[in-house]
Amino acid sequence: MIETTDQNIEQVLISVLEKVSDPEIPVLSIMDMGVVRSALIINGNVKVQITPTYSGCPAMDVIGDDIKKALKDAGYESKVDLILHPAWTTDWITPRGRKALEDYGIAPPLNPTADKEVLLEEKRMVSCPNCKSTKTVVVSQFGSTACKALFKCEDCKEPFDYFKCL
Amino acid sequence: MKNNLYNYILGIADNSLILGQRLGQLCGHGPSLETDIACTNISLDLFGQVRSYFQYAAKIAGDQRTEDDIAMLRKERDYKNVLLVEQPNTNFAFTIGRQFLFDVYHLAFLTELQNSNDFTLSVIAKKCVKEVSYHLRFSSDWVKRLGNGTSVSKEKMQEAISDLWTYTDELFYQTNADKEMVFEGVGVDVTKLKNNYYSHINKILLEATLEIPESKWFQTGGKEGIHTEHLGYLLSDLQYMQRTYPNMEW
């Protein structure tokens, strides 16, 4: 196996898979999340490979079931496999996915260096999804799920989640 | 080879399983909402990692065993975790101290395991290493915060580090399976991680204005299945459901 970040998804399946969303972030399609690594039609059946965001992500089983259901509705029997390699990274979230996160109230990930600075040195760079102010501070490095940290905005006083870099 | 690999994987996975269970015990009992959530999030990461290891171990065993059997149906002496991770949540400083002393090791270990010539182990390590770097940030941050906090928080943090210190050297102990796997290019030679481990720990302790323990007496045994009394209680909790209702699923 070679290290690659290329996805291999058949064109005809894209619109079907785009309808499946992350159960914990319903506005985010699994395609925009980047967890679908391949989806191929082999002898009429679909073989899908998905990769977890975090090892312990409890959403993966549900996502697998939702994919099977969506494909069945589109007329395909399918098999969904979980793969760990290459490891998922927040870089795979698409620009549309980042926009969806922000609209939903979750600040999208910064780059890894900035990520360390906001989480450890309390630098103010994360933009509040509510009022866009960057006068924001970390409340907890771990938030409502493993992939997020908890922040608060000192201008509009709203607490919000920040999607950590991985 | 097969047996050594199986035991080697259990040696890695049991640390995460037992520490994950310890942290899970804080669910709803953390000192603040944020730390409660952080500890259980770390626990969840560790359990996720354990599943990858045990699924692989079950495949290697090649019999009817499943990942759940390996997690739930072994006796105390069959668990190969280091003594450090089974130590109780005496207070928040102990929880943080235990986490910190393990995280520094865990991150260094996984960084090396990425180079394993066993493909599955290297892939699992590549996944886990990213998660564990967050664990280490969290625990280091709290060691410094408590060390530099009030006289009470400093005293408790110091007590935790000094008490848990005796369990640190075991992280670098090698079982026969470990040695064999290092020889095969599968395992990590943990003895080579020791110097960096202590210098990293010492650096953070200095930043936390804490004293570096001087004791040279270290307790070992966990990796060979000889545990402290705390593990039995932890397992009776962990295994309760499978012992009471054998083979139950939900």
List the helices and strands and how they pair.
The complex is a heterodimer of chains A (166) and B (250).
Chain A: E1 8-9, H1 11-17, E2 21-22, E3 25-29, H2 30-33, E4 36-42, E5 45-50, H3 59-73, E6 78-82, H4 95-104, E7 106-107, H5 112-120, E8 136-140, E9 148-153, E10 159-163
Parallel strand pairs in A: 1-4, 5-6, 7-10
Antiparallel strand pairs in A: 2-3, 4-5, 8-9, 9-10
Chain B: H1 2-24, H2 33-61, H3 67-72, H4 83-86, H5 92-113, H6 119-147, H7 151-164, H8 176-183, H9 194-207, H10 230-238, H11 240-244
Describe the structure.
The complex is a heterodimer of chains A (166) and B (250). Chain A contains five helices and ten strands; from the N terminus they run βαββαββαβαβαβββ. With 166 residues, chain A is of the alpha/beta class. The longest helix of chain A is centred in the middle third of the chain and has 15 residues, at 59-73. Chain A is elongated, with a radius of gyration of 17 Å. By secondary structure, chain B is mostly helical. Chain B has one domain: Ferritin, CATH 1.20.1260.10. Chain B contains eleven helices and no strands. The longest helix of chain B has 29 residues, at 33-61. The two termini of chain B are 35 Å apart. The A-B interface holds A 1, 52, 54-58, 84-87, 116, 119-120, 139-146, 150, 164, 166 and B 34-35, 37-38, 41-42, 44-49, 51-52, 119, 123-124, 126-128, 130-131, 134, 137-138, 141.
